[in-house]
Amino acid sequence: MIMNKYIYTALLSFILLSACKNATTSTTVVATATDTVEKDMHTLSNADSITLKHLDMDIKVDFDQKKISGKATWTIDNNNKLNNLKLDTYDLTVDSVFVNGKKVNAILDSPIKYMGSALNIPVEVGSTEVTIFYKTGKNATALQWLDPQQTHAKKYPFLYTQSESVYARSWLPCADGPGIRYTYTARVSVPKGALALMSAENPKQVNDSGIYHFKMDLPIPAYLMALAVGHIDFKAIDNRTGVYAEPGMIDKARYEFDGVGKMVNAAEKLYGPYRWGRYDMLVLPPGFPIGGMENPRLTFCTPTIIAGDRSLVSLIAHELAHSWSGNLVTNATWNDFWLNEGFTDYFERRIMESIEGKDYADMLWELGYQDLVTNVNELGKDNKDTWLKINLDGRDADDGFSDIPYEKGSHFLKLIEINVGREKFDAFLKKYFDEHAFKTINTENFLSYLNANLIKGDSTLAKKLDISAWVYGPGIPANCPRAGNVRFAKVDAQNGKFLKGTPPAQLDTTGWSSNEWQQFLRKMPDSITREQMKQLDGTFHFTQIGNSEIADLWFVMAIRAGYEPAYTAMEQFLGSVGRRKFIEPLYAAMMKTPNGKEMAKRLYAKYRMNYHPLAQASLDKEIK
């Protein structure tokens, strides 16, 4: 079903308005929600006028042809008596279309950059069911078809989808916008011996037929449609959590995620019940381009968080938090992406604080702040893409994916918490999630809700928050909060000792977590010498470390310093990891020197096919 989206048509109260003017831009906050629909510029569909209630899929996965084919049947409600239903497609071949069982002449429009082609289907007042027979194309952005050598076992092929942000349209005809929600069922046929999984109720083991049935009875947007097919095992963690992975990874994954059940319990204590039934995870092959994808009931995650010591599982806390912020309450358009990721970053750190303590969460906050500073410097402090509410009209929806919505968004929420008090802010967030469950919201409507339910016309509080500087202003506002520095102060002291000549073996690193090691390496100057690198490596063995976060920082340092003993391990890393967070900085560092450019071109040519199409697209621009 489609939930209402909003536009802003009236000003906030006089007090909030006057307090929230940006000192440099005089931008004002506008807010009050109405029943008017805000147009999502990244969908060609007219699902704001014709309701898509339910999707039933019947598809076949063909590894030989690397193609998905079958039919998608939409149950619709044509209350507005339109004569044309528009759906999003990208590189799909549409074989035939039926409306209420009768074949009709549907027309595909010419493709539009970033958007694909609209599929125009003639409908009538009484039309209730639309069936599209189709197959995917070779440029289906959402699909990564892995040959056996690209998997962990290197014996069987693997397929997975990545539908966020607007890529669901490349594997099913749909209304592909975050503000459009529907339920779905599916029948999926796969090669015998393979297991199929979706963002739905899932099987726990392979069957004999190769045919799997799925049901998602809670409404979700298209970007949360997910499918994975491969030789996959399952192990339970507790009665509602578990992990899927390739057989050779399942034991490691089960060990790593042992505490996930406790995370779910901690999240519920903060902001109310988990509403999706089960929370399971699928560890994908190495080419997965991002850390995790919060597909309902089945988080897809990168194998780079399998460090062997449970040191990187805060990523799972992040994906779990999406079960409230993003999946439950969804950003109306991609211009409002911070309402998804900013809330989730904040929630993730609250979960980790409840499990590991405040000093641990403070380290996550500080690392995030550093990422925010770096991103703002890269974009430019006056760039409008550093606003929380950005304008992506006419642009690739992925242009909004940066550290800004995550870190600026979460720090804005942290600022509110500090100023109103944690107890009051937690009550506000719980109410927000409850009242907006399975709905969408845009920035202006959230600000109106914030004023009505928390600020309540308090001019002193509004002035302290300076909302407009955060939401409609560039860079990092002057009142941005900083976390405590208890544990990182000790790290920085050891870093300083090393740079002044203390041998690494004499540094006090006892009990350091992955966060402390990241801080230690991040604070190393670009001018670090090969000899200093050799000393560090001799004591801490960074070149062979199994922690991907630390390894990536180390390899970037090795490139800058010309520390060749790390190059073989770095190549192995680039050949076995597809996560953009790691591979893009490494290739970017190589491209900054003549010798590095040659190395980057050689390695990229060798390993390009291991990477997801999204990673290939960005690296193709970087490596020329």
Strand content: 15-25%
Q: Mind telling me the CATH class of the largest domain?
A: Mainly Beta
Briefly note the structural class of the backbone: alpha+beta
> Biggest sheet: strands, sense, closure?
7 strands, mixed
> What is the mean pLDDT?
93
Record the strand order, biggest sheet: 5-4-8-2-1-11-13
Corresponding CATH architecture of the largest domain: Sandwich
Question: How many β-strand runs?
Answer: 21
CATH fold name of the largest domain, please? Immunoglobulin-like
Provide a count of the helices.
19
Low-confidence stretches: 1-37
Radius of gyration: 25 Å
Number of self-contained structural domains: 3
Q: What does it look like?
A:
The protein is an alpha+beta fold and 624 residues long. It has 3 domains: 14-38 and 332-471, Neutral Protease, domain 2 (Orthogonal Bundle); 51-231, tricorn interacting facor f3 domain (Immunoglobulin-like); 488-622, Serine Threonine Protein Phosphatase 5, Tetratricopeptide repeat (Alpha Horseshoe), CATH 1.25.40.320. The protein is 36% helix and 19% strand. The chain is built from 19 helices and 21 strands. It has helices at 14-19, 250-256, 260-271, 314-321, 338-356, 358-379, 403-420, 422-435, 443-455, 459-465, 467-471, 486-499, 514-522, 530-540, 548-561, 567-576, 580-590, 594-607, 613-622, and strands spanning 51-62, 67-77, 84-89, 92-99, 102-104, 107-108, 117-122, 129-136, 143-146, 158-161, 181-189, 195-198, 211-221, 227-230, 233-236, 241-245, 279-283, 292-293, 298-301, 329-331, 439-441. Strands 5-4-8-2-1-11-13 form a 7-stranded mixed β-sheet, with no helix packed on it. The two termini are 45 Å apart.
